[in-house]
Amino acid sequence: MYNEILKDLPCLIHPGNLKTLVQRWLEEDTPNFDYGGLVVGEKEEKAILLCKSPGVLAGIPFFDAVFSELGCSVTWCVSEGNFISAVSQPYVQTAVVMGKARNILLGERVALNCITRASGIATIARRLTEKVQKEGWHGEIAGTRKTTPGFRMVEKYALLVGGISQHRYDLSSMVMLKDNHIWSAGNITQAVHKARKACGFSMKIEVECQTIEEALEAASAGCDIVMLDNMKPQELHPAARQLKSEFAQIVVEASGGVTEENVTEYMGPHVDVISLSLVTQGYQCLDFSLKVLGANSRSSILHAQPE
Fold first, then answer.
1. Chain-centre distance of CA 9, in angstroms?
2. Per-residue pLDDT tens for 58-98?
3. How far apart are CA 134 and CA 112, in angstroms?
4. How confident is the model at residue 306 (pLDDT cuts 50, 70, 90)?
5. Could you give the residue numbers annotated as active site?
């Protein structure tokens, strides 16, 4: 399923939203005079994107959009979602950017910020996907809403490139009733019933639960998903089993305390989803750089690099 949708993932991105996002990024980086642009001028140049650390390439639509906004063109040597093995050699040629010198440099940092971060997220997401496949687990790993303000589209997109789920995109995507909602509403049942009156049949309701008693109340009230929050694996699996035995249709999510190292301990026959924030908060960026080939001393960079 993952390979089937990978090539079509860019279709998720609304062109108008992407253009607005890119314009904001560029304005943030150059709010007034472009002093470096004065130095290099508008002569046509070629620059190559070099990947200098191993990982999964992600973020091509955002990289392309930045340079398209600046009248530059990008030709890719590596496809979205492919693993780049920058180990046996110091760098791998990943793309070629053509355009006016000042425009290439106007977009350089903004585009690199997108590709380095998206690829870092996709790389850890791919490792998690491989753990799921190795364990033969039926469920899904999902990234949370703990994303960088103004950068959520890139980070959520990168999760999908890496092969894991994005959970809800925003507050309007699904009803999630957390502890603060419950305390303010009075109890779980009242909160679920009130939410259902507003969202109707077309939206799912999830309730964050700390105990099996809370989980059973949430399921009885009519929620669709129960999050068993901050439970150790030895507590989680018996609770999930009991919940499924009484409410077979309920989706059980495990969350809290999950790391890349212990994620397999949370996988089980009665757990359907494992959510974790490390994929958008604790990832390591891939190392990319963009080099203009105007200087003769750099012409050898292109030699012997994979196409």
1. 12
2. 999 999 999 999 999 999 999 999 999 866 677 899 999 99
3. 33
4. very low
5. 146
